Amino acid sequence: MSTTSPSPYVSAHATPSGPGDARPTALQIISDEGLQNNLTSKVFLVTGGSSGLGLETVRALHATGAHVFMTARDKAKGEKVKEGILSSSNGTGTVDVIQLDQASFASVRAGAEEILAKTDILNVVVFNAGISWPQTRELIEGQESQFCVNYLSPFLLFNLLKHALLKGASPEFASRVVVVSSGAHRMAPVQWDDITFEKGYNTWIAYAQSKIAGTWMANYIDRVFGPQGIHAISLHPGFVWSGAQAHVPQEMIDGWMTPEFQKFFKSQAQGAATSVWAAVSRAIEGQGGKYLEDCEIVGQAKEDAAPQERGYAPFAFDEAQETKLWELSSKLVGLK
């Protein structure tokens, strides 16, 4: 794995000073790439586009002039977000809101069907939607809730849409799959002996499992479908205050409130920058099977890395486990 990338944002991330500092926003990525209304022939899909990082990702991609699909559990909320983006954007593209709840495989299938009824090509899919840290074990579709929502539903959605991604690929712009993972994946790999946590629930390990699963999915997609024109990347967006912290115990939040740790936090617009860079940057055209942080390809984390330090886990790139998970997932979601 390469530990460097031709990112122009290295210096901006060298000395972070908190939300709104010199680190780029998602819209700045579009401006710096010179892509305002210059991707009018492209079709993007962003899951979870009605709030947080997803909203900022949709906002930035709309500025390219592309046709952007965004999924939302609550379609009415999604339509209001769409109206807000269109009223404030100079982008000439369109936004379609697709009702899709990743807590239901039936909803995922219905959402995919609606998307394919509106377009037969996709150029980029950003798997952004997810849940984090429920304090009690809950099963969804027979699986631990975070594993289902954060991983299995995106896995199913990719498989339902892959032919549109294959059709959208070209020698000049390979199709891209962007998986929003998390630095928390370093906490644990997939718990093969107890994926559903029947032996005891730990929400943090379950979250880590769901996020390493996403990275393994991206690696597998790139390895298998890369030669056919679909490249895939996973990433850590950084520390961002959002609804994701709703279930975090107050004592842990208090630990994050120190001045030293607060400087690593990003605004939501800054947190979406790495997803947008992965989706459109010319610097990584034709590349995949990489892990990004701070708009840059990064290498393996050191063994005793602190949460705010960069890098992926030593088990993040493991072909045998990636293949094992892909085969299991196909059975769990009912794919032949």
From TrEMBL:
Top-level division of the source organism's lineage: Eukaryota
SUPFAM superfamilies recorded: NAD(P)-binding Rossmann-fold domains
One Pfam family named in its UniProt record: adh_short
GO molecular function: oxidoreductase activity
Keywords linked to the UniProt accession: Oxidoreductase
Residue span of region Disordered: 1-24
Annotated family: Belongs to the short-chain dehydrogenases/reductases (SDR) family.
Protein's name in the database: Short-chain dehydrogenase
